[in-house]
């Protein structure tokens, strides 16, 4: 853990990757600006997670989501920290009993960024080119657009993946644009992929803050930094994922937007090889964000049929981005 005040007013748990720390510092500054708390009295407690420690196996084998939150949530439940900061897409659909998402910061750009060594776009890559990603969703969407490309597993934080790209291990990689922006590396993106053609993961671009339900003081501090539109969008997206989670072992994309009191959710499920894709759009009042998400998930589950979800890697394998939201 990094050095912290001897008697901190608030203890925030975070992973230790450069991006995770950048996100935690964004939260720290937001809390200090919105509350009468000097920033130097807020402690960042670095906690290693299972996903950080196991790097030599595909995420689908390990369980995917939860790998990057479990140890932090345990620290929160025991009272070792007061709040936990996560990339929202790393979070389990059902949170541990006694915990809740107490705040979300304003969403950064939710789109995916395509990065190639020679400036070639996804559509321009030579047949047989190797595209690196740890995400089943990105794999499926790449294969949907370019079945002639080879998708290879690629784990690690942003800098690690960029180094592997530069070393020629792959010809291109896909990263969350939000993470690149927060690290000041958006300039490396060869192209930004449109959400209609390349829907992001549920929660992509969102920093979510978890707290104990019985900790009224911390929840009050966090309430002052919560971005309502982002929170509503995340509610819809997580409800969409929850509707699929019971039987869905397949790549999932979901993105909600809020405008003029209405919410719109675009959802997608696909087979890992991109050979079959189902999409839908659902809208409704913001007050019914969860219902909108559930309706979208139920529609896709019914439309695809039970056979669509059989014998596929776990949908929980989207995650493991080294803190990339």
Question: Could you explain how this protein is built, in words?
Answer:
By secondary structure, the protein is α/β, with parallel strands linked by helices. The chain is 31% helix and 22% strand. It is built from ten helices and 13 strands. The strands form three sheets. The chain has a five-stranded mixed sheet, with helices on both faces. The chain has a five-stranded mixed sheet with strand order 7-6-8-5-9, with helices on both faces. The radius of gyration is 19 Å and the shape is globular. The two termini are 22 Å apart.
Distance between the termini: 22 Å
Helix and strand string, N-terminal first?
A: EHEHHHEEEEHEHEHEEHHEEEH
Indicate the proportion of strand residues.
Answer: 15-25%
Count helical runs.
10
Low-pLDDT windows of residues:
313-317, 319-324
Helix content: 25-40%
Look at the helices and sheets and give the structural class: alpha/beta
Main-sheet strand order equals 2-1-3-10-4
- Look at the structure and give the mean pLDDT: 90
Specify the oligomeric state.
Answer: single chain
For the biggest sheet, the summary is: 5 strands, mixed
Kindly provide the radius of gyration, computed on alpha-carbon positions and rounded to a whole number of angstroms.
19 Å
From the spread of the alpha carbons, the general shape counts as: globular
Query: How many beta strands in the DSSP annotation?
Result: 13
């Amino acid at each position: 853990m990094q050095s912290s005040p001897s008697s901190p007013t608030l203890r925030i748990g975070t992973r230790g990757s450069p991006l995770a720390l950048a996100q935690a510092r964004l939260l720290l500054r937001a809390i200090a600006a919105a509350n009468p708390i000097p920033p130097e009295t807020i402690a960042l407690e670095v906690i290693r997670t299972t996903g950080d420690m196991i790097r030599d196996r595909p995420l689908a084998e390990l369980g995917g989501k939860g790998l990057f939150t479990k140890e932090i949530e345990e620290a929160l439940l025991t009272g070792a920290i007061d709040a936990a900061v996560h990339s929202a897409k790393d979070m389990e659909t059902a949170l541990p009993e006694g915990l809740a998402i107490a705040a979300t910061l304003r969403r950064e750009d939710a789109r995916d960024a395509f990065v190639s060594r020679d400036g070639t776009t996804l559509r321009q890559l030579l047949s047989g080119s190797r595209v690196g990603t740890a995400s089943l969703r990105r794999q499926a969407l790449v294969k949907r657009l370019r079945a002639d490309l080879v998708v290879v597993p690629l784990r690690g934080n942003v800098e690690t993946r960029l180094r592997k790209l530069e070393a020629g291990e792959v010809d291109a990689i896909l990263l969350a644009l939000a993470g690149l922006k927060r690290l000041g590396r958006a300039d490396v993106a060869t192209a930004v992929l449109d959400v209609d053609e390349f829907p992001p993961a549920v929660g992509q671009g969102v920093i979510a803050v978890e707290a104990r339900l019985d900790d009224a003081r911390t929840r009050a501090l966090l309430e002052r930094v919560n971005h309502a539109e982002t929170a509503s969008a995340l509610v819809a997206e997580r409800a969409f994922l929850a509707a699929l989670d019971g039987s869905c072992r397949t790549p999932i994309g979901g993105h909600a937007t809020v405008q003029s009191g209405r919410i719109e959710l675009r959802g997608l499920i696909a087979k890992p090889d991109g050979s079959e894709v189902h999409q839908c759009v659902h809208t409704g009042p913001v007050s019914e964000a969860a219902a909108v998400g559930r309706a979208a998930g139920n529609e896709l589950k019914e439309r695809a049929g039970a056979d669509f979800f059989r014998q596929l890697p776990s949908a929980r394998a989207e995650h493991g981005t080294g803190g990339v939201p």
